[in-house]
Amino acid sequence: MADAVVIGAGPNGLVAANLLADAGWSVEVLEAQDEPGGGVRSARDVHPAFVHDLFSSFYPLAAASPVIRGLGLHREGLRWSHAPAVVAHPLLDGRCAVLHRRAIDTAAVLDADTAGDGAAWLRLCTAWERLGDDLVAALFTPFPPVRPGLRLAARLRAGGGLRMARTLVLPVRRLGEEEFRGELGSLLLAGNALHADLAPEAAGSGGFGWLMAMLGQTYGFPVPVGGAGSLTAALVSRLRRHGGTLRCGARVTSVVVRSGRAVGVRTADGDAVPARRAVLADVSVPALYGELVSRDDLPTRVLEDVRRFQWDFATFKVDWALEGAVPWSAPAAAQAGTVHLAEGVDALTRFAAQIAMGQVPERPFLLFGQMTTADGSRSPAGTQSAWAYTHLPHRVRGDAGGAGITGSWDRTDQELMADRVEAQVERYAPGFRSLVAARRVLAPPHLEAQDANLHGGAINGGTAAMHQQLVFRPLPGTGRPETPIAGLFLASAGAHPGGGVHGAPGANAAQAALRSRSPSRLLSGAQRALSRRGRLGRRD
Ligand SMILES: Cc1cc2nc3c(=O)[nH]c(=O)nc-3n(C[C@H](O)[C@H](O)[C@H](O)COP(=O)(O)OP(=O)(O)OC[C@H]3O[C@@H](n4cnc5c(N)ncnc54)[C@H](O)[C@@H]3O)c2cc1C
Rounded to two decimals, what is the model's pTM? Predict the structure, then answer.
C-alpha cells in the first residue's frame, strides 16, 4: 500500500508526487489519459516533421517558480530555450510593441513610439525590482504567505505603500492611461492580463498584466527544448528515480472516505487503491466535490460554494505546420515567441465583453505561438511550428461575427471558428494561409476529452478574478489545499495560486499532507480492508 495516492499526472500532480517521494513517502500516481502531463504535452501529431505542444507552451511561471527550480530538472535532461524577443504586439499600421528580456530594450521600443513612455516603463520596472522577489515568494508559498507576506508588506510600505497597492489592483486600462501617453505600453500590459480571463476593466487586471510582463522580462518566456512533453518527461523520470510509480489509463471515479478520512480511491475499471496517509487530487474543484467525493461526505456549505464556483473562459486552439516564416507586416513580430493579436485596448474590451454576453467574439484576441522561433528543434529550418488560441463563452448565446457559430462545436462550428482565427492572423500577416501545410483544430470538447480538468475548454482551473483568488480560492475559506475530508488535499490549478505551470498548488498540497497527522489505527484498519478487497465491482 502506498503512503499517498495522487490523482492526475498534470504538472501539479507530478510536483506533489515528487515532493512526497523526496520526503520518503511511497507514492502512486493514477492518470486517466494514456500519457502523463495534463496541460503539458507534445507530439508530432499535426505533421510528422513538426513537434506541436498539445496545450501549454511558454513557461515564465515555471522559470520563476522556486518549486520547479528546486526540483533540479536539468539533472533529468530538461533544457530551456528562448526566442530572441519575449512578446510582440503588432498593430495594423506596422507599429509593434515588443517585450524584451532587458528593460532598457523594451523601454527603447516604447520611447521610439511615444517620447516619455520608455521612462514610464522603467518606473514600472523599478517597482518590480523592489517588490518582485517577495511577490513571487508570496505567490508560490502556501496561503497565508506569512514570512514573504510580511517582507512584501514592509517593502510596500517603504516604496509608496498604499499607492503601490492601488496600482496593483487597478484595471489594466486605467493603469495604462495613468502611466503612458502612447498606446504600446498599455498594450503590453493589457495583452498579458488577458493570459488570464481578466478584461481590461477588471479590478486587478493591471497588477496581473504587470506581473506577467515583468516575469517575462526577467525570466523570458522559455520553452523546453524538444517540446512541452520534455518538461513532463523530466518530472516523471525524477519521480521514478525516487521510487514513485505512475499508472496511465487509470481514471479515478471516487475517493473512498471512511469516518471522514480519505483512505484510498477507486478507478473506472474497479480497482481499489488504498492510501496509507493521504490522497492528493490534481483534479478540478467541481470534479472533486460532488463527483469523486460523494455529496453525502461533504458539508452543505461546501456544496453551496461549489454551486457558485466560476470557470475561466472556454478556449479554442488551432495548431499549424507552416512551410515558411509568418509574413508579419510588422517585422519586429518575427522575433517573438509569443505574439498578441488585437487592434488595441478597445478591441480587447470588445472581445471580453462579447464573451461576457455569451457571444462568440467577432474578432478573436489571439495568443499566437512561434515555437520554432523559440526552439529550433521544433521543425525543419525555414518552417514554423505555430499555434494560436483564443477564448469563448462556455454557453454560446450568439455569434457576434455573424457566421452562425452555435456553440455545438460540430464540424461546421469548428471550421467556421478556425477560419475566423486564420482571418485574424491574415490581417497582420498577409499570405499566412498560403503557408499552411497541416492544421489541427482543438475546440472546447477536444480540450476536455484530452484532460478532464479543462472543463468546457477552461484552461486555468477557474477564474482568476478577484472573487476567486487568495482566501476565496477555490471556495471561500482559507485559500489552503486542505479539504473537509481528513487526508484529502486539492493539488490542482483550482487551488491557490491558480493556473499556469509553476507547481505551487502541487507543492502546497504535498506540504500540507506531510504536515497532517497520521490516521488512527482504526482507520488504518479500514485502509487494510480496502487493500485486501482489491478489485471491487461495487461501491461500499
Ligand atoms: C491551450 C492551453 C494553453 C496553455 N498555455 C499555458 C502556457 O503557455 N503556460 C502556462 O504556464 N500555462 C498554460 N496553460 C495552463 C496550464 O497548462 C495549466 O494551468 C496546468 O497544466 C495546470 O496543471 P494541473 O496539474 O493543475 O492540471 P492539468 O495539467 O490539467 O493536469 C490534470 C491531470 O489530471 C488528470 N485527471 C483529471 N481527472 C482525473 C481522474 N478522475 N482520474 C485520473 N486522472 C485525472 C488529467 O487527465 C490530467 O492529466 C495552458 C492551458 C491550455 C489548455
Answer: 0.94
